[in-house]
Amino acid sequence: MEAELNCAHCHQETLHELVYAGRLLVSTTCSVCNTRVEHETNDLWDIYLKDLPHRIATKPIRMWRSFRRSPSKSFWALPKATFGKPFKMLKEYRNLKKKSD
User: Which domain, by its residues, includes 37?
Assistant: First the structure.
């Protein structure tokens, strides 16, 4: 994901690449000066593992809201989302693992 942020290094509002693991921001990288800001690895793992049960527990509620808002769109998107979830979780794990290496 990308966003316009104020870079602490080059003191400009520039485009930054944002890397997430689930709902957690892992790092930001400035597109101008390539300065990378990261969280501490141990903190990320702890927060991610604490957040995971909440995400799992609230998934049925979030799915229900989606179905209520747009039943036909949700119905057709469900198979893709269901089969893609393990890959999404693997991507989150790799983002955290890459950070710890």
Answer: 2-100
